[in-house]
Design goal:
Elements: E1 7-16, E2 19-26, E3 29-33, H1 40-50, E4 54-58, H2 60-74, H3 91-101, E5 109-110, H4 111-117, H5 124-132, E6 145-146, H6 159-168
Parallel strand pairs: 1-4, 5-6
Antiparallel strand pairs: 1-2, 2-3
Length: about 180
Amino acid sequence: MEKTNNQSVYWAHLIHEGWKMYIAATEKGLCYVGSQNQSFDELSQWAKKYLSYHNLVPNNEELQPYATELIEYLQGERQAFTLPIDLHGTSFQLSVWDALSKIPYGKTYSYSDIAKYIEKPDAIRAVGTAIGANPALITVPCHRVIGKNGALTGYRGGLDMKIALLTLEKVKFNKEDRMTDV
């Protein structure tokens, strides 16, 4: 399929209580949920790298269904997302992101759990890299991945965002036990 510049990525700035993040979707589904309190530049750089043949178009109306589900989640009223997603990555990344999407609300898995799930048990570091490239925070719940020893690990949205999401889901963890490496 020929890539043309007439395809759109619709975006909106989701602001709800203390949460502020950019979200974006193609005509196929949600493709991006940004980090807490980051500028539009985070979305712009991601789109330039992964969807360079698309135009970024502000459109609150197009993003409203996704914003509604995210707000319901942030209010503790939703545990799963039902709207379509349109993720862009390598086949390995897509397999990791699919595995993340199967982690139940309120549960955590380790990087090695994910590596075993995708039948690549020796690819723990590659799994960590793929998780770090997850473009759809919250909806593809990479915040539910912690170190094998139970320690909090890095998160594209920052550890404060990860802690807030795990707290929302009532996950028990030790806030003092943080790791920076998988």
